[in-house]
Amino acid sequence: MVSHCCKLMVKEEFNKLKIKISSIELGELEVQQKISIRQFDKIRAALLKNGHELLEDKKAIQIEKVKNAIIEMIHYSEQPPEEKYSEYLSKKLECDYTSLSSLFSEVTGSTLQQFIIINKIERAKELIIYNELSLKEICFRLHYSSVPHFSNQFKKITGLSPVYFKSLKVRRRVALEHLMDEQEIKTKK
Which residue range(s) make up the domain with 17? Predict the structure, then answer.
């Protein structure tokens, strides 16, 4: 589960199966009762039907917890954590960052730092499109030390500078306006 919509869908599926959930977080849930093998199979089938899977492997579960913590921290929190991402993850998951990082690399074939950077850039793209924050404010929110550092990383991941990326949004909007104008001219003829 990587979004709040996913959590709602999972809750709904468990309600249909009359299984009470005591807590649900991104990536994990706790039930109030023992689950039979038959119920477990029904849960697995319901989740698969909706594009989710039930994780049973401890390493995969830990990786999902790491990914969900990062996604929650970067995409859903209004304020950036006060501490570094590594400290935040260690505290939240009650595990040494070096161990988390090693496990992440072993299981995914990618580094934890790369996953964080990709999510930071995706969030930056959203914030640029919303046009509510300046680049400096975006840098602060996403823990970049400076606008040039952010710009370099943004360009490395997207192939575009943040300013150029922002201009594309304006061009698309202008292009759509021209399409609307052209459509109006055609309908008037």
Answer: 1-54
